Structure formats: structure tokens, C-alpha cells
TrEMBL record:
InterPro entries: Leu-rich_rpt, Leu-rich_rpt_4, LRR_dom_sf. It comes from the Eukaryota. Keywords: Leucine-rich repeat, Repeat. The keyword Repeat applies. This is Leucine-rich repeat domain-containing protein. The keyword Zinc-finger does not apply.
Amino acid sequence: MNFLKTLNVEFNQISDLSPLSKLTKLQDLNIQNNKKTNLYSIRNLNGLTTLFVGHNKISDLNGIQHLKNLKSLYLQNNKITDLSPLQECRLLAYLLINDNKITDITPLQHSAQLKYISIELNFIADFQVIIVTY
């Protein structure tokens, strides 16, 4: 299983992803509609390019900053407030963060590769960073 490139475990009851830490060749991971509260346990999956974690209970993005090859990230319908760990995801091109508790999108100002951002249903008052940066 160490050569597995795609894994979809959507619509389960998963809260612990630590068993996935050995799947270092994984490129695409779908853990939507589970019971995850953070992403720290997948911080070693450096090969990930696409990550679906929508419809969980994620409030903390700590650990995601280690996923340097991440290009597409789906975080919709969680409890995220702080986007600062995304500052290190320099290859991120597609970001869906709808329906969270985000008030500040300033951490996205260094994401020069971003081509698509969806941030509806949050608490953002100032979109200036998007206008200036992109």
C-alpha cells in the first residue's frame, strides 16, 4: 500500500488519520464528511497535491503548512477561523473555504499561484488583500 496515490474515505466516521502517515506516495486524499477536527496527523504526506476535507469539524489547520506540494484544497463547511498555516502552501492554486468562521484572509496574500478562491458564507469584512494581491 506504500505506492497508493489516491485514497477516498468520504462519508465514514473517521476521526484519527494517523494510520495514513505511512502512505508517503499519496497524492490525492478525500476525507470529506467524517469527524476530523484537525489536520496535524497528515503533516508528513508531502506528496499530497489535492486534499478534500470539507464537511468535517476542523477548527485548526496546523500541520497543513508542511504540505508544500498542495495545489487544490477543499475546506468547506468546517469551523476554521485562522488561515495562517496556508501561508506556507505556495503552490496552492484552488482553494474552497466556504461556510467557515473566517474573518481575515490576509494570510492568502503570499499565495501567488492562487487562481480560484471561494470564500462565501464566512465573516470577512475586508477583501482588499484579494484586490491588491491578485
